[in-house]
Amino acid sequence: MSDFRQFFKNKKITVMGLGILGRGLGYTKFLAECGADLIVTDLKTKKQLLTSIKELSKYKNIKYTLGKHDLRDFKDRDMILKSAGVPIDSIYIKEARKNKIPIKMDVSLFVKLSPAVRIVGVTGTRGKSMTTALTYEILKQSEKFLGVKVHIGGNVRGVATLPLLKKVKAGDILVAELDSWQLQGFGDDKISPHISVFTSFMPDHMNYYMNNIKNYFADKANIFKYQKENDVLIVRPDVKKIIPKNIKSKLIVVGARNVTKYKFTVPGKFQKENLACAVEVARQFDISVSRIGKIIKNFKGLEGRLQYIKTVKGIKIYNDNNATIPKATIGGIEALSVVPKDKNLKKKIILICGGSNKNLDLGSFVKVVNKFCKAIIFIPGTGTDVLRKNYELKIPYEMTKDLKNAVQKAMKYSQSGDIILFSPAFASFGMFNNEYERNDLFMKIIKRLK
């Protein structure tokens, strides 16, 4: 849509959630530049949001309601642009709906305003970030062959999707990582991507969805719900079981068996399944097997996703910060473990985990930890408390006061040949503002290790 600036000019828009990750800042700045009449509201205080507010200081068409929300900001407005994670039962969103004000979200609004762009959407409880990164890398490095530009958006650190309206042209491709919250926006607008990838589905965010997994799936399902006959849905084998039989789009099932020909260095069967999804997207654009192979061969993985960092005193250290549910941590442990045939086989993994509770079952997690791990070092959090109180750990474990202390203790437990795996299994809230802050601190601590 070439006249997007005109679309936003003088529109009264309430931005719900500025945040500190950069996405909220990015689309707020974009709307301000387009001449919108903005109210920015966030539960965080001015002090907490200072870096974002400083970046917006030159715009005179922004008013702020910080440290709280105000019902008055959800009346007499043309649009509410809400961030991911706004509670399902938010009284402020209910107020806006009562006043017949459209509720929009960053990525879905971009899609509505840019119908000439081809959308590749990736979701899944686990695997969406790796699949998005792989898909983007293959398509981006194939731009000359494709004859169009390839962009990335959605749930990507520091990237706001709406401002891409300034860059995209007809026929361009957007690869978007879509969590369940962003897919709420797709549901509201009754749209789905042209090519959709659904990597996995397992319980997550049950604290947000009030232990109702059907509501969680309903949001995820928006990735294919409004697809048309010419659209494509790519899934891993486990996901096929939960896809309705009456979908309109073409269903393609892929797994690790589809990518045995490729040299891929990221460990874990589930990562090969993510690769299979990305390769299938590339094949939808007629990218050759040889071209895909060359790109994959040089792909070193993604930060915070079972990422090998370095070896210190013979101890290998991995960062799996983005494993925020028990099943994700189980996947990391199994990827780095040798299944013991001998009960006396020495265990090598010292696991650093813990964090904020998400109301998920921990039984399988504890079994895997007891079987494969040499010791556990816990960081504080409500989830850590639940685990220690309700489950039996048969291996040594220690509590720590912070992440730095956890790394120090893990090093003391380790010897040459061992593995330190930082894979939290819980959310970051409590100790950290978000998972990226936790990731950055861990990387900083490990960088200093000698």
TrEMBL record:
One of its GO terms (molecular function) is UDP-N-acetylmuramoylalanine-D-glutamate ligase activity. It is found in: Cytoplasm. Keywords: ATP-binding, Cell cycle, Cell division, Cell shape, Cell wall biogenesis/degradation, Cytoplasm, Ligase, Nucleotide-binding, Peptidoglycan synthesis. Pathway: Cell wall biogenesis; peptidoglycan biosynthesis. Residues 122-274 form the Mur ligase central domain. It is an enzyme of class 6 (ligase). NCBIfam families: murD. This is UDP-N-acetylmuramoylalanine--D-glutamate ligase. It comes from Candidatus Nomurabacteria bacterium GW2011_GWA2_41_25. The lineage of its organism: Bacteria, Candidatus Nomuraibacteriota.
